[in-house]
Amino acid sequence: AADAALQKLINENAVTGPFQIAAVYGLRKEPDKMFEWLDRAYAGRDAGLTQLLVTPFILNYKDDPRFAAFCQKLKVQFPPPAGAAKP
Fold first, then answer.
1. How far, in Å, CA of 79 to CA of 82, rounded?
2. pLDDT for residue 80
3. Among 9, 26, 62, 77, which residue has the least CB neighbours within 10 Å?
């Protein structure tokens, strides 16, 4: 059922909601697909990218080097790694 719901989301929102699709892949623990959809969101200038640093299912991968690279591409400050001292 989850696979069918995801496919429906993709079919209906691939152009208008790639960030949301990326978040679902993050929830499903499929980081390769998540980063693929984040790149689609970037290419399509998806406004959802403004939520990158506050979306838990995506932030689960903040220690993945692809996350840092994506933040650099967006020109957003990369959050400190887990356990880092807060200012």
1. 9
2. 55
3. 77
